[in-house]
Automatic annotation (TrEMBL):
<dbReference type="InterPro" id="IPR020568">
    <property type="entry name" value="Ribosomal_Su5_D2-typ_SF"/>
</dbReference>
<dbReference type="GO" id="GO:0006012">
    <property type="term" value="P:galactose metabolic process"/>
</dbReference>
<dbReference type="Pfam" id="PF10509">
    <property type="entry name" value="GalKase_gal_bdg"/>
</dbReference>
<feature type="domain" description="GHMP kinase C-terminal">
    <location>
        <begin position="285"/>
        <end position="354"/>
    </location>
</feature>
<comment type="pathway">
    <text>Carbohydrate metabolism; galactose metabolism.</text>
</comment>
<dbReference type="Pfam" id="PF00288">
    <property type="entry name" value="GHMP_kinases_N"/>
</dbReference>
<feature type="binding site">
    <location>
        <position position="224"/>
    </location>
    <ligand>
        <name>substrate</name>
    </ligand>
</feature>
<dbReference type="InterPro" id="IPR014721">
    <property type="entry name" value="Ribsml_uS5_D2-typ_fold_subgr"/>
</dbReference>
<dbReference type="GO" id="GO:0005524">
    <property type="term" value="F:ATP binding"/>
</dbReference>
<dbReference type="GO" id="GO:0004335">
    <property type="term" value="F:galactokinase activity"/>
</dbReference>
<dbReference type="GO" id="GO:0005829">
    <property type="term" value="C:cytosol"/>
</dbReference>
<feature type="binding site">
    <location>
        <position position="68"/>
    </location>
    <ligand>
        <name>ATP</name>
    </ligand>
</feature>
<dbReference type="InterPro" id="IPR006204">
    <property type="entry name" value="GHMP_kinase_N_dom"/>
</dbReference>
<comment type="similarity">
    <text>Belongs to the GHMP kinase family. GalK subfamily.</text>
</comment>
<feature type="site" description="Transition state stabilizer">
    <location>
        <position position="28"/>
    </location>
</feature>
<feature type="binding site">
    <location>
        <begin position="34"/>
        <end position="37"/>
    </location>
    <ligand>
        <name>substrate</name>
    </ligand>
</feature>
<keyword id="KW-0418">Kinase</keyword>
Length: 388
């Protein structure tokens, strides 16, 4: 444990007899396949190097105390009382929901003191909530001496918490990426069968730059649910022609013959075309054709802007600035949209000029100061306790 973390932990909780252990869960950037997980298709997210660390020590009673180094709110949970969602608990609802679910699954753990520290911007579309959930599940399984190797089960448990306890009707992509990410690979996940495999992301002289619009995701919840409802409406209109395994599998001809509403048609066109782009992305990445991969990213953004309408002025401005900046092969929003982050594929030697060019164009267009993180595909959740 780095000395500053040890100090902060002891300052908060004092010294104690049990071992202090630490765990890390990354955020994720979805490379391509946006708004596809709940439509039964293929997505290609990668865990990133930014993430959340939990420093934990068991207690001898049944009390859980949680602190986050970037939020003054202290959270306390008594394991002998029912754990219900509570707006006053703020960010603490993510770990609380996971603890409740672990107890329901009869994982047997004691109380603990936990300090969360993060390098992941909150509410920026990099899955800080999934990271917090997966981190809590993994840490408490480990503290309980239970197996932590079924990462798929951990991801599914956390998605259930997000859907039922937190109340966000998300798909399965984020929790899978955070749990199962792998260094230098993207996760190619079939959201219908939940089968996955790893696709090497060999970027050579290029790097992935995450660009934060500094615009918190707006309306993300309500518009997200609206898009899900629109996809369901398309399936209903397809009637007996509706594919059983999700809208991504609908042939475009059947959309043309059953769906006359122009908005619903555009929503379906995004879903079907984005799925085709994921398949192409696999092929061009395997062939090492980064220029083609970059073009697919940019086409994905255009489809999310024009057909799915989930980008908004800030994401459009930063992607537009990126596409005009030196060394950029392609760029797109990542995550749910409506603010948050975009990614760009950038030639490494050009990164300083790229970021300064995007910064000035974006600042001039929006008045907001963007942030940049140069990252690469990283491992999913794991223990970081230093032994010995
Ligand atoms: C959010 C959700 C995911 C996924 C993306 C859009 O990140 O949590 O399940 O639907 O939006 O691709």
């Amino acid at each position: 444990m780095p000395p500053f973390l040890a100090q902060e932990f002891v300052h908060l909780y004092g010294t104690g007899d049990h071992e202090v252990r630490s765990f890390f869960a990354p955020g994720r950037a979805n490379l391509i396949g946006e708004h596809i997980d709940y439509n039964g298709g293929l997505v290609m997210p990668a865990a990133v190097t930014l993430g959340i660390t939990a420093t934990c020590r068991l207690r001898s009673d049944r009390l859980i105390r949680l602190h986050s180094s970037d939020d003054a709110l202290a959270v306390q949970i008594d394991l002998d009382r029912p754990i219900e969602p509570d707006p006053a608990r703020g960010w603490g609802n993510y770990p609380a929901g996971v603890l409740r679910e672990l107890l329901l699954q009869e994982v047997n753990f004691m109380g603990a003191d936990v300090l969360f520290t993060t390098t992941l911007p909150q509410g920026a579309g990099l899955s800080s909530s999934a990271a917090m959930e997966v981190l809590t599940a993994f840490s408490f399984l480990a503290l309980a001496g239970a197996p932590t190797n079924d990462l798929k089960a951990i991801a599914l448990l956390c998605q259930k918490v997000e859907n039922q306890f937190v109340g966000v009707n998300c798909g399965i992509m984020d929790q899978f990426a955070v749990a199962l990410g792998r260094e230098n690979c993207a996760l190619l996940l079939d959201c219908e069968s939940q089968d996955y495999h790893y696709v090497p992301v060999a970027l050579g002289a290029h790097a992935l730059v995450i660009m934060n619009t500094s615009r918190q995701r707006q309306l993300a919840g309500s518009k997200y649910n609206e898009r899900r409802a629109e996809c369901d409406a398309v399936l209903r209109l397809l009637g007996t022609d509706a594919p059983r395994n999700g809208l991504v599998h609908a042939p475009w001809e059947s959309i043309l013959s059953h769906v006359s509403d122009p908005v619903l048609r555009r929503r379906a066109r995004h879903v079907i075309s984005e799925q085709a782009r994921v398949e192409q992305a696999c092929r061009v990445l395997a062939a090492g054709d980064l220029a083609a991969f970059g073009r697919l990213l940019t086409e994905s953004h255009a489809s999310l802007r024009d057909d799915y309408e989930v980008t908004g002025p800030h994401l459009d401005a930063i992607v537009c600035a990126a596409l005009q900046a030196p060394g950029c092969l392609g760029a797109r929003m990542t995550g749910a949209g409506f603010g948050g982050c975009a990614i760009a594929l950038v030639e490494q030697v050009e990164i300083p000029d790229f970021t300064s060019s995007v910064r000035s164009a974006y600042l001039a267009a929006t008045g907001l100061e963007p942030a940049f993180y140069v990252t690469h595909a990283a491992d999913g959740v794991h223990e970081t306790t230093r032994k010995g």
